[in-house]
Amino acid sequence: MKPVSVQVITYAPTIFAHCQHCELAFSEMGIGERLRQREAAEALPDDLREEYQVVSDWVHRLIDRHGSRIRVDVLDAASIRGFAASLRHRVGRYPAVVVDGRETWTGLDFDAPDAAIDRRVGAADRGPVVPSAP
Hints:
Blueprint: E1 4-10, H1 20-29, H2 32-42, H3 46-66, E2 70-76, H4 80-88, E3 96-99, E4 103-106, H5 111-126
Parallel strand pairs: 1-2
Antiparallel strand pairs: 1-3, 3-4
């Protein structure tokens, strides 16, 4: 069974890593994780950070519900991959959800994408329809 593809295009926090030596030093000093948390908290303005949290919570619920039956790919809308995906799927507003490369939704109302994903996962679980012999 091929997993259902769920692509989420949204503004996401970008965190840059330091060189390996600095990361090791920060870790030994006990500030590595705090530094990354602070960078993540400051990576987006408040409204986009709150929006990203809503999207993240939805993605986690989706994964909890369907597990390995779905493959989720979260793309930062400001990245090259996110920009290319936006062009390919003709998305101009974010967040956007693309299911199996065919159906697209925008906004924070995830009822329609949820229903589509549930249908596709259910269809995949049932397998291909084989006509019965007469």
